[in-house]
């Protein structure tokens, strides 16, 4: 059965973004554990934002796992992307993601490439951008494998990237790589904008689906928008998905309320007795 996770952001520049808990990692871990989550997903400014010792201590004392680490700070803080026309920016983007893979890897948590994929245009052709993206994934995927974890790549909606907007194009990208260690993140918010049938897209994604951002159509917690979850959950069962359903949602109406709503919806959908 999939496990539950909730997002925590420590990135000031991301204020207003879709993260349930903010700023205070010890409090976030306490609330995540009290609400009944299995894990947290951490959006940190960089690999040194929290010491490994502090993070291990918090995870252990609250019996939480680290589901994944986001790399978006590389974009929101440092303006680094893997498809920048500037070679030195691409290099620093790759280095940043490698350092985040090592940071999460200590805790068995994969890194997610979302906004750091960038976009094509302004002198960079689609083919060129996809070539650079493939190069980076082919380098970073094997690096993640050394920690025994995959690297996670996230298709985004059209307003956030023009590279890969659908699960099916994500699968094409995965199949074109030399590494077999990259998996797709299916974010239900992005999918609601781009896919014609979310359940069918997840089924077609099959074993390539490695992580889920569990959220409603409007980026509010699951159940507070208009997504129909039962067919989505049935699709995940049919592909034997056993990764995390991670709440990348707005703290609406506020953080603790968002966490409670998410876990209640998760339990309802999976018939878990809380
Ligand atoms: C942002 O829309 C998002 O989905 C993140 O997971 C990617 O950075
Ligand atoms: Mn996402």
Written description of the protein model:
This protein is an alpha/beta fold. It has a single domain (3-273), classed as Alpha-Beta Barrel (TIM Barrel), CATH 3.20.20. 42% of the residues lie in helices and 15% in strands. It has helices spanning 25-35, 52-61, 73-76, 87-105, 126-145, 167-175, 188-194, 198-205, 229-238, 255-270, and strands at residues 3-9, 21-22, 39-43, 65-70, 111-113, 151-153, 182-187, 209-213, 244-247. It has an 8-stranded parallel barrel, surrounded by 6 helices. The longest helix is centred in the middle third of the chain and has 20 residues, at 126-145. The radius of gyration is 17 Å and the shape is globular. The model has no long low-confidence stretch (mean pLDDT 97). Bound molecules: L-Erythrulose and manganese (II) ion (MN).
Task: Provide a compact summary of the structure.
The longest helix has 20 residues, at about 125-145. It contains ten helices and nine strands. It has about 270 residues and is of the alpha/beta class.
Question: What's the arrangement of secondary structure elements?
Answer:
Blueprint: E1 3-9, E2 21-22, H1 25-35, E3 39-43, H2 52-61, E4 65-70, H3 73-76, H4 87-105, E5 111-113, H5 126-145, E6 151-153, H6 167-175, E7 182-187, H7 188-194, H8 198-205, E8 209-213, H9 229-238, E9 244-247, H10 255-270
Parallel strand pairs: 1-2, 1-3, 1-9, 3-4, 4-5, 5-6, 6-7, 7-8, 8-9
The structure holds L-Erythrulose (LER) and manganese (II) ion.
L-Erythrulose (LER) is lined by residues 72, 114-115, 154, 156, 160, 187, 213, 248.
